[in-house]
Amino acid sequence: MMSFLQVAQLVDSAFPTGAFSHSFGLETYVQEERIRTIPDFLTWMEGYIQGTVSPIEGTGVYWSAIWVPAYLQQSRQQSEKQEQDKIKSKLLDLSRRMTGTRLARESREGASKIGKRYLHTVQAVYPETLLGDYASWIKHERGDANAAIVHGWICAFLQLTPHMAVLSFLYQTVNSMLQNLIRMWSLGQTDGQKIMTALFPLLEREAAAITAEPLLPSQMYTANVMQEIAAMRHESLYSRLFMS
């Protein structure tokens, strides 16, 4: 029961991650009236999840959740530092690859800002997670904070399965984007929940696919080129609610 409450806390839209400031190109689509209806948004969201989030952040969450348990165990047992350094190198490489795979500058910067905020909040709420080590690595080795790694790390600490880590991250992502859509549209909360419910099967399929046949970090990709272009053009919009 405790693990359920803890993961529910992490994916709640009230948990401060800074995601409310970033639309990752969605605002461009809405302003240009390429998203005008709920079916339009569902189509966009499906493309965003399948073409960007799953192959990048979903992969990142999975490998973080796979590698971090060994790091935590070795830290508790005070094992040889060499083994911990191997995991550190893999996580930093994973973080850099996730940042580099996003094509739009605002998307890269937005993901980094969300990662820093998520890292800060989780550290404050769960100081015993050793996420301070990750914070130190990215500070001293010029890495980018990444919410996917933070989420995989905290889920590993909470002893959740990699599948649950990935699924909860996908839910968190959709929930954040949906709340941003509600701010852009005159959309009621009930309609918002209907949209979320309609996306549940997609999230289940994507989480199952990621954990059944995970991409290697070197295989991460983005296939949603139009969304990336919209994210690039976002900075030239006449007026903006969001930073990306």
Automatic annotation (TrEMBL):
A Pfam family matched in the record: UreF
Q: Which residues cross the membrane?
A: none
The record, for Gene3D superfamilies, names: Urease accessory protein UreF (1.10.4190.10)
> In the record, which residues are listed under signal peptide?
none
Q: Tell me yes or no: is Signal among this UniProt entry's keywords.
A: no
Alphabetically sorted, this entry's keywords are: Chaperone, Cytoplasm, Nickel insertion
| GO CC annotations on file | cytoplasm
- Enumerate the subcellular locations listed in this protein's record, separating them with semicolons: Cytoplasm
Give one GO term, molecular function aspect. Answer: nickel cation binding
Q: Does the keyword Acetylation apply?
A: no
Subunit (UniProt): UreD, UreF and UreG form a complex that acts as a GTP-hydrolysis-dependent molecular chaperone, activating the urease apoprotein by helping to assemble the nickel containing metallocenter of UreC. The UreE protein probably delivers the nickel.
Give a short account of what the protein does: Required for maturation of urease via the functional incorporation of the urease nickel metallocenter.
Family affiliation? Belongs to the UreF family.
User: What protein name does the entry list?
Assistant: Urease accessory protein UreF
Q: What is the lineage of its organism?
A: Bacteria, Bacillati, Bacillota, Bacilli, Bacillales
